[in-house]
From TrEMBL:
SUPFAM superfamilies: CO dehydrogenase flavoprotein C-terminal domain-like (SSF55447), FAD-binding/transporter-associated domain-like (SSF56176). The keyword Ion transport does not apply. GO terms for molecular function: FAD binding; oxidoreductase activity. Residues 1-176 form the FAD-binding PCMH-type domain. It comes from Saccharopolyspora hirsuta. Pfam families: CO_deh_flav_C, FAD_binding_5. The keyword Metal-binding does not apply. This is Xanthine dehydrogenase family protein subunit M. Gene3D superfamilies: 3.30.465.10, CO dehydrogenase flavoprotein, C-terminal domain (3.30.390.50), Uridine Diphospho-n-acetylenolpyruvylglucosamine Reductase, domain 2 (3.30.43.10). InterPro entries: CO_DH_flav_C (IPR005107), CO_DH_flav_C_dom_sf (IPR036683), Diverse_Substr_Oxidored (IPR051312), FAD-bd_PCMH (IPR016166), FAD-bd_PCMH-like_sf (IPR036318), FAD-bd_PCMH_sub1 (IPR016167), FAD-bd_PCMH_sub2 (IPR016169), Mopterin_DH_FAD-bd (IPR002346). Keywords: FAD, Flavoprotein, Oxidoreductase.
């Protein structure tokens, strides 16, 4: 398999990258390339120009700013997965990243690239929404901040304009418990269904719950009925089972070659149970 013809550009800075993207509506930013290049090989994507942003200094770095973990969009997923700072401040991110493809994929794929790709079965998208993250993007009109919940609009589509580059991810650092689980045919495959869970407990009861499912629709999505089953209760087996049933019953997953809706609902129910068990056993 070979991609269709394209031009290649490697800008020296972020400003030049934005100008190159703005100059051609069919141009596409290239970071790790772990999702874009296979799509090009299958002729599912046909960019006229690849603008290589992988080595831009503005997209690097991983740091803490007060109560926010800031990750440059160009940081490799494996780097974020193994970083001590991530484990200490945002453990859900590490839990989610373990499920992204294989070691080789995570070594090349970037944090920002996964979010910008907007795969509805992507682990990082679910984690970002569950953590109430924000992304910073830069375009011809300057910088702006977009809540992760507003980033994903359709399969492989975001709310960013064509010339905007996702430059960093900002994750609030909070005293919460988290869990992540997904069900797939094999380790490293795309998930049939999965969930990222973020809970706050006080006096043994759930006071806040954010559950975000993946692989169950056109985008990653909150599971409000399951969240409601948790709030105000101790995280016991009966409550966990009720939340898992509510999550499965309230979803309308797609029917495709990998799984039918019934299978996806069953997978989501199991994933919610597993993720909440992680939280209760923490």
């Amino acid at each position: 398999m070979k991609p269709p013809p394209f031009h290649y550009a490697r800008p020296d800075d972020l400003g030049e990258a934005v100008r190159l993207l703005a100059a051609d509506e069919d141009a596409k930013a290239l970071a790790g390339g772990q999702s874009l290049l296979p799509m090009m090989n299958f002729r599912l994507a046909r960019p006229s120009v690849l603008v290589d942003i992988a080595r831009l200094p503005e997209l690097s770095g991983l740091r803490r700013e007060d109560d926010v973990l800031v990750i440059g969009a160009g940081v490799p997923q494996r780097t974020a997965e193994t970083a001590q700072l991530v484990r200490e401040t945002c453990p859900l991110l590490g839990l989610a990243l373990r499920h992204v493809g294989h070691h080789q994929i995570r070594s090349r794929g970037t944090v920002g690239g996964s979010l910008a790709h907007a795969d509805p079965a992507a682990e990082l998208g679910a984690a970002a929404v569950a953590l109430d993250a924000e992304v910073v993007v830069t375009g011809t009109s300057g910088r702006r901040t977009v809540p992760a919940a507003d980033l994903f609009v359709a399969p492989f589509q975001t709310s960013l304009s064509a010339e905007e580059v996702l430059t960093e991810v900002r994750l609030p650092i909070r005293d919460v418990r988290c869990g992540f689980a997904e069900i797939g045919t094999r380790s490293g495959d795309f998930a049939i269904a999965g969930v990222a869970a973020v809970l706050h407990l006080a006096d043994g009861e759930v006071t806040e719950a954010r559950l975000v499912g993946l692989g169950i629709g056109g985008t990653v999505q909150r599971l409000p009925k399951a969240e409601a089953e948790l709030r105000g209760h101790a995280l016991e087996d009966g409550v966990i089972d009720a939340a898992a049933r509510a999550a499965a019953d309230a979803t309308s997953p797609p029917d495709d070659l990998r799984a039918d809706p019934r299978t996806r609902r069953a997978a989501l129910r199991s994933a919610v149970q597993r993720a909440l068990k992680q939280v209760s056993n923490a």
